[in-house]
Design a protein that fits this description.
By secondary structure, the protein is α+β, with helices and mostly antiparallel strands. It has a single domain, classed as Roll (Nuclear Transport Factor 2, Chain: A). Helix content is 32%, strand content 46%. It has a 6-stranded mixed beta sheet with strand order 2-1-6-5-4-3, with helices on one face. β4 and β5 form a beta hairpin. It is globular. The relative contact order is 0.21.
């Protein structure tokens, strides 16, 4: 996949992810992950599969997390695997929080899904 295609495909996932998260739509966020994806959280919890991933994000949303934004720093890929290094920010109880992330995607430009997602 060409670099511009990677950026466009991942950018669209990031946009949809933020839109769903900020609307409190945990199912919408989870739909952007592969069926067998893994979410590696800062608390050492590993959510595996869409059902667990949806439950994890729903719990954060219920505790007031909103205003999420992905800030991509680097995209790369090989074959049907794409990775993104970036930053994230979100608000909770009026305070901004931020950190770093790595997301690994699988599929082609028309069907990329998040396979692994880790952040601090």
């Amino acid at each position: 996949m060409a670099a511009s295609g990677i950026e466009q495909a991942v950018g669209e996932i990031n946009r949809r992810w933020d839109e769903a998260f900020n609307a409190g739509d945990a199912a919408g966020v989870a739909s952007l992950y592969a069926e067998d994806a893994r979410l590696l959280t800062p608390t050492r919890t590993i959510a595996t599969g869409r059902r667990e991933i949806e439950a994890y994000w729903r719990q954060l949303m219920e505790h007031g997390w909103r205003g999420h934004a992905w800030e991509p720093l680097e995209f790369s890929g090989e074959g049907h695997t794409v990775w993104q290094v970036g930053r994230w920010s979100a608000t909770k109880d009026g305070s901004e929080h931020q950190g770093n992330l790595i997301a690994i995607y699988g599929g082609d430009a028309g069907s990329l899904l998040i396979r692994h997602h880790i952040w601090n």
